[in-house]
Amino acid sequence: MPLGISVVFFARSSAIATIKQVAEAAGVSTATVSRVLSNTGYAREETRKKVFKVVAELGYRPNNVARNLRVRRTNVIALVVADIENPYFSAVGKAVQDLAYLYGMQVILCNTDEDLDKEQQYLDVLKSDNAAGIIIAPTHQSTESFRYLADLKLPTVVIDRSFRNIDIVLNMDNVVIDNRGAGDALGSHLLERKRNRIGGIFGYGSVTGRERFEGVMEAHERAGVRPTDELFRFVAAKEQLGYQACLDLIERPDPPDALIASNGLLAAGAYRALKERKVDIPNQLAFASFDDTLWTPMVSPAVTVIRQPTSAIGRVAVELLLKRIQDPELEGSETVLKSELVVRDST
Amino acid sequence: MPLGISVVFFARSSAIATIKQVAEAAGVSTATVSRVLSNTGYAREETRKKVFKVVAELGYRPNNVARNLRVRRTNVIALVVADIENPYFSAVGKAVQDLAYLYGMQVILCNTDEDLDKEQQYLDVLKSDNAAGIIIAPTHQSTESFRYLADLKLPTVVIDRSFRNIDIVLNMDNVVIDNRGAGDALGSHLLERKRNRIGGIFGYGSVTGRERFEGVMEAHERAGVRPTDELFRFVAAKEQLGYQACLDLIERPDPPDALIASNGLLAAGAYRALKERKVDIPNQLAFASFDDTLWTPMVSPAVTVIRQPTSAIGRVAVELLLKRIQDPELEGSETVLKSELVVRDST
DNA sequence: GTGAAAGCGCTAACAC
DNA sequence: GTGTTAGCGCTTTCAC
């Protein structure tokens, strides 16, 4: 019968074409299609053309999930930070993302809210996802917490927070600024301005806040000025807590004559409190902070800050991570980037 | 020989265990392990215990790449925006990320820099990655550009920019604010303050900027005031361009007596210019903007703004996206969220 | 130059 | 309740 064996293929309209369908339509094997598309191995010019033609016709797109399974890696890196709304992290994030794009990597964003459970949940998922690597500002800087991180055996770059004081060997890279030196610089600057009742609001629970505080203490020591312990507060990095701590300090019977905030969020809260109470800056109280955000140069008086090299931090982190992805056994490293004291009218 | 057939397995130390190894060690099949771990189907309590024990011993973690290939979906959603450093987008991003976390989804971040090529490259990759869905503030609002987006056949929610004027049917959800109404509100507010030489700096190339502008025009019309065309500028959303445009305007022989900036970045640049030239706000010039960022209440004078419900935008976008992932054929929708005029000292 | 075939790790019929 | 097996879509030996 003439109509016996006649098969018509209907393309399922919304289903995406597979490499197999491309191969059939082009009259070659899937191996050849794969070779042509990934531009690896030889193929006759004619074959190449045919493959590309069919690919265009069918609107074929490779399935990266299948590809990743086969080649046992992904091109996803994760950025694990406390809060992308924190201008410091969003600046770093922008730099990470921009450079990752150039290297053909994608960036998964994880906000931990400084919650250790949440952080570890994310890390577990990232491991299961076969993330190529992670850039993390870890919530806790304890040995156990770093051990957890290390046990994932994922290429890791730690930013913003140092693990110098962790007593296990970590095959990770660390990108930080010289927090102690920066704290010292800020303290010295205020001491030179003849302030000797310096107060401060520092990030709680992070080595970073602690180091910045220690820097301020060093400045006191070198200047021979005795710091007033009661004028220093350690709170979580929230605008509201900065506001509250600042009120506490300026409402004391013996308020400080200078105030340091150890990050941009605390600074915003503190500055709001100072404005609200109409504190005369810098005459009544000098004010300075870490993180040069959009607003610090805009307010009156403009705020003296330690400017962190956020773009460089992000870029260096990505560069180190990519090297580590290539060779996970690389020895750990520490990169200390320079920060800059920007003196403005508030001090 | 007694020593004949004796096989010893060495665990390759750093290689992660597979479900097969778990199955062997537990003396069950991979199917059972899978069932136990995904808590689907029945399993004897004894079996369950044994599986969990082995899982713990071997430090087994499921391979999501393999799983995703098999089940033909991922739990990754993408957030495609111009620039995560823009406070508006980082606020939306935070909300998206937070809610996605609760639903067990991960968020891939894509910065397009308002570059259409880059945007389309990202979209292609996301398609290849089998992203579950995308939340996007599209760079262009042309029909072709939306057609490209639609052809991906990915569940999509469009934020910040309306596609009301696109003449093809789009199975997408749209989450926006009433830009025209908000522009009208801001314009009316200034007109009530007896300003009749209002100028403005608006985002270039986006429907959003255009709509806000039109709202301002409407306010003029209703008030019977004729707007001065030369006092309106359309530029890309960059701080520097806001600064430049503002300088241009205030240095005219016939400068405006009020100025509107259509987003947070332009506002920051414009405000910087005003401060630099020591313009007396609001007496000499009233200033108002869209986006209530960290700095607008902090500067002196504090800035009158349209506050966008950034958290709600992010949350609603995720909710809609998840529904659409469940049922991609859902008809398109438009959600208009309310914005709020916050009057401060600058007007 | 190209094809056949194995297999990445997992889930889901289906059989028992 | 549990095991067998097919197969998701791709890359990569290994033949020829």
Descriptive account of the structure:
The structure is a homodimer of 347-residue chains. Chain A has two domains: 200 residues, Rossmann fold (3-Layer(aba) Sandwich), CATH 3.40.50.2300; 129 residues, Rossmann fold. Helices cover 43% and strands 16% of the residues of chain A. The first copy, chain A, is built from twelve helices and twelve strands. In chain A, the strands form two sheets. A six-stranded parallel β-sheet of chain A has the order 2-1-3-4-5-11, sandwiched between helices. In chain A, strand 8, helix 11 and strand 9 form a beta-alpha-beta unit. In chain A, helix 1 crosses helix 2 and helix 5 packs across helix 12. The interface between A and B is large, with 49 and 49 residues. Chain A binds a DNA duplex (16 and 16 nucleotides) through helix 2 and helix 4.
The multimeric state of the shown protein is homodimer
CATH topology of the largest domain in chain A: Rossmann fold
Largest interface: A-B, 49 and 49 residues
Topology of chain A as a string of helices (H) and strands (E):
HHHHEHEHEHEEHEHEHEHEEHEE
Roughly how many Å is the radius of gyration of chain A? 27 Å
The computed structural class of chain A is: alpha/beta
Number of domains of chain A: 2
Largest sheet features of chain A: 6 strands, parallel
Number of strands of chain A: 12
Q: In whole angstroms, how far apart are the ends of chain A?
A: 98 Å
Name the CATH superfamily assignment of the largest domain in chain A.
Answer: Response regulator
User: Which stretches of chain A are low in confidence, meaning pLDDT under 50 for 5 or more residues running?
Assistant: 1-13
* Lateral strand order in the biggest sheet of chain A: 2-1-3-4-5-11
**Residue-averaged pLDDT of chain A:** 93
The CATH architecture of the largest domain in chain A is 3-Layer(aba) Sandwich
User: What helical percentage do the residues of chain A reach?
Assistant: 40-55%
Proportion of beta-strand residues of chain A: 15-25%
